[in-house]
Amino acid sequence: MIRSERADGGAYRAVTIDRPAARNALRPADLDALEAAVAEATEPVVLLRGAGDAFCAGADLDVVTDLSDPAAFAGHGQRVARSIEDAEAVVVAGIDGAARGGGVELALACDVRVATPDATFAETGVRFGLFGAWGGTARLRRVMREGDALDFALSARTVDAEEARRLGLVSRVVPDPAAVAAELAGNEPDALAAVKGLIRDDAPVDERERTEREAFARLHDAHAADIARGRTN
After folding, report:
1. Per-residue pLDDT tens for 162-208?
2. Does the keyword Isomerase apply (predicted)?
3. Is position 101 within any domain?
């Protein structure tokens, strides 16, 4: 089950994976609901979180055990992760408790990842002959050095919040991830969208620089009065 609700007076949208008895493990229908909740958000910031004492245990193993088309299932998760990455909103993963397998991969697809002191991370699939196939092998190398990514993915070891911050899995360890979502939501939505798009852009450098110049000019013209006020703050 996925819950989606306006939070902080509508400043951001909270999307909650709500299967606490299953440690928020995801079935195909949950993946579809998660994709829809993020895509349909009209707020500039989305906070992705888990109910109970886990963020997300990844794919529901009852489903994985009986897969008739494993490649299609992997593609399903990849599509949902890509939709989170490509969402118009800035998506914050607020990780409290365990993130395992596909839960780590969904967090990697988010724009900002923050953890509480109780958060833990592991890619445990290699213990029983699998690995995370929702885009995690590609995204890990973006946030970690290659050696750290290999150690994390091959060892199946559990990493606590502070080590996750040192490795680059998360950018902050905070008491309440909702405070980070509210902080980001306090900024101009069009500037948030522009910065997300520019940093995510993987075009050649000269093209990215041209896009950056054009976006800067548009924002400058649209927010001239706000910029003038900011000079005095």
Report:
1. 999 999 999 999 999 999 999 999 999 999 999 999 888 777 878 87
2. yes
3. yes
